Amino acid sequence: MGFVGLFLSGAVLFLNSLMLLGKAEAKSVGIFNFFIGTIQIIIPFYLIIVSGQEHWELYNYASIFLFGLTYLYVGFNIWKGLEGSGLGWFSLWVAIIGIVYTVTAVIHFHDVVNALTWGMWAFLWFLFFLSNALDKKIDHYIGKVAFVQSWVTLTIPALLYFLGIWNTHIVNQIWTCVLILAIVYFVVSFFKLKFSYKKGNSGQKIHVINPLEVK
Question: Is the pLDDT reported for residue 208 higher than 50?
């Protein structure tokens, strides 16, 4: 059931990325955030109730709430037209939690794919913090990151699980490479953005625009 939640998260993150890229209308995407966010609150509650209450089970199921609460918060902000600083600071908190899950995946579970995945999610939530709490103009860059992550960290892994081949040795090797390539793409895109704005302002004296200040 947890992978059903990942599958649905892939859908909502895909739509959110298109909204940030200016391809989808915000209020219609906000409705979908409400819908999936509600499901992502119900699913972990159900899983916790029927679980054996073992601490690692609770650890895994609690992470689903991070997605559900984020989607509900995004949907509410869109519909109420809020300025978003609360969402931004919440995203920073979630990013810190994401780092904990990343480190735990490495140290306790020795799971490279899970560690890379959580690291990428933590990075995305940190970008939401920069955009919403600190008002950094990076929505287009966030849209690119969210678009890629919607497929490589959520949708495709869920589909592979449904097909019964997720966590096999060969798939783990392939997906480690896929996630590393995605991270390289994020880094290259960031520096391309920086270079393009430096070039656009080359006629100005000693003025270098930080890409985190450009939407």
Answer: no
